[in-house]
Amino acid sequence: MKISTDSHEKTLILGDQLGKCLKPGDIVLLFGDLGAGKTTLTQGICQGLGLNKGEYIRSPTFTLVNLYQGRIPINHIDLYRLDSFAEIEALGLEEYLFSNNVSLIEWPEKLRQESDPSGNLGLGIEERIEVRISIKEKNRRTFDITVIGQNQRSLPHIL
């Protein structure tokens, strides 16, 4: 499903709608360049998961993982600063990923193992929702949302 937004506010609304569709244990991978809108979309997703609108969501670039309480607990993970899959393995992210929390992961391309020529994600992530964000113009973004895995489900038309 491809959806375009042309403002910060519409990206928040898209995230809110997506958040309302998520279930315990869902893993959402957020792909996109710096400034693409990953954290803005995450803020909206957290609103859709019942986080208080006044609660501040920031990218966990330095802390690596932020935890939030919504109707489903949320793991917000940022892999930007990590240089290798070995560093990711050392963090013990499996504890977060394979829980009943929703996990939102920025820079998930870092999960690809250098030694795996197929490009599969490491840590056993098979069931997931991938969101690929493209910058089209200054405020215009395109979100390509795909559900991947054996238990694929369709997301309702959200905008």
Automatic annotation (TrEMBL):
One of its GO terms (cellular component) is cytoplasm. Keywords: ATP-binding, Cytoplasm, Magnesium, Metal-binding, Nucleotide-binding, tRNA processing. It holds the Pfam family TsaE. The keyword tRNA processing applies. One of its GO terms (biological process) is tRNA threonylcarbamoyladenosine modification. One of its GO terms (molecular function) is ATP binding. It is found in: Cytoplasm. InterPro entries: P-loop_NTPase, T6A_TsaE. Belongs to the TsaE family. This is tRNA threonylcarbamoyladenosine biosynthesis protein TsaE. It comes from marine metagenome.
